[in-house]
């Protein structure tokens, strides 16, 4: 019977903010746990207890390997992928800015004036024929 229960099954971190990993000891005895990979830690958990592991912010994705070490030398391990969520880059193109609004208004005005002049010229040319 395994003492290891881990949640979540995929850890998502950002470049600025880490994540939390929950490690449960489901047996009624004290067990030794070891975390390897992009983050390393060794700890023991009493029976039926929980440890919240803070995974620091990362710039690269990787794998966390959580091992449960038995006194007889047996090892039970779970691998959890760590994904990095990148921040959206701020755009220098701001639709709500005043220069953009003025340029858009001027463009639309010129478009309507041009269409009006073209229709008027076309109407004038069709009446002469």
Question: What characteristics describe this protein?
Answer:
single chain, 129 residues, 3-stranded antiparallel sheet, rod-shaped
Structure overview:
By secondary structure, the protein is of the alpha+beta class. The protein folds into 2 domains: 4-85, Immunoglobulin-like; 94-129. 24% of the residues lie in helices and 41% in strands. The chain has 1 helix and 8 strands, in the order ββββββββα. The chain has one helix spanning 98-128; strands at 4-7, 11-14, 19-25, 31-37, 41-45, 49-55, 62-69, 75-85. The strands form 2 sheets. A 5-stranded mixed beta sheet has the order 2-8-7-4-5, with no helix packed on it. A 3-stranded antiparallel beta sheet has the order 1-3-6, with no helix packed on it. Strand 7 and strand 8 form a beta hairpin. The radius of gyration is 32 Å and the shape is rod-shaped. The mean pLDDT is 86.
Q: Estimate the strand proportion.
A: 35-45%
CATH H level, superfamily name of the largest domain: Immunoglobulins
Count up the helices. Answer: 1
Would you count the extended β strands for me? 8
Radius of gyration: 32 Å
- Spans with pLDDT under 50 lasting ≥5 residues? none
- The helix content is 10-25%
What gap, in angstroms, lies between the N and C termini?
A: 97 Å
For the record, what CATH class of the largest domain applies? Mainly Beta
**Architecture of the largest domain, CATH level 2?**
Sandwich
Principal-axes shape call: rod-shaped
Average pLDDT for all residues: 86
Largest sheet: 5 strands, mixed
């Amino acid at each position: 019977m395994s003492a290891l229960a881990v949640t979540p099954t995929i850890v998502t971190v950002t470049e600025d903010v880490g994540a939390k990993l929950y490690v449960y000891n489901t047996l009624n005895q004290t067990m030794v746990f070891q975390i390897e990979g992009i983050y390393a830690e060794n700890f023991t958990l009493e029976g039926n207890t929980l440890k919240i592991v803070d995974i620091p912010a990362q710039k690269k994705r990787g794998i966390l390997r959580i091992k449960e070490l038995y006194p007889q030398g047996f090892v039970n391990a779970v691998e959890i992928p760590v994904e990095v969520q990148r921040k959206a880059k701020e755009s220098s193109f701001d639709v709500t800015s005043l220069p953009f609004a003025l340029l858009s208004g001027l463009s639309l005005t010129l478009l309507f004036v041009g269409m009006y002049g073209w229709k008027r010229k076309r109407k004038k040319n069709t009446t002469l024929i």
